[in-house]
User: Which sequence fits this backbone?
């Protein structure tokens, strides 16, 4: 068993934070939920287009915030392989924010279509 075979992948949904007191009315809540649904549909569409996963299965992963093991992701076309990362001692590394990587991937995908 390699360290990467113990990896897990969580499909978390989209949400929003409310940091200040706010009055929510039904119309506001519908707008927030509509925005979240649109984001889930958009993300699920990208995953579906790039993998072998049925659209409804992808939506269910996000809706239930499911966590999958290292065998699930290559089997379903989410990645080519899962393996241990080996970084040579003293190698230069960079840190990236996940949001920046996601934006780059979406931009690259749009440019290729």
Assistant:
């Amino acid at each position: 068993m390699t360290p990467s075979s113990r990896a897990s992948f969580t499909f978390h949904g989209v949400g929003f934070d409310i940091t200040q007191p706010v009055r929510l009315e039904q119309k506001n809540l519908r707008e927030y939920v509509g925005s979240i649904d649109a984001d889930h549909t958009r993300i699920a569409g990208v995953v579906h287009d790039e993998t072998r996963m049925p659209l409804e299965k992808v939506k269910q992963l996000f809706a239930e915030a499911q966590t999958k093991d290292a065998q699930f992701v290559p089997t379903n076309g989410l990645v080519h392989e899962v393996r241990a990362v080996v970084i040579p001692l003293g190698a230069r590394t960079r840190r990236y924010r996940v949001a920046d990587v996601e934006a780059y991937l979406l931009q690259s995908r749009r440019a290729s279509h």
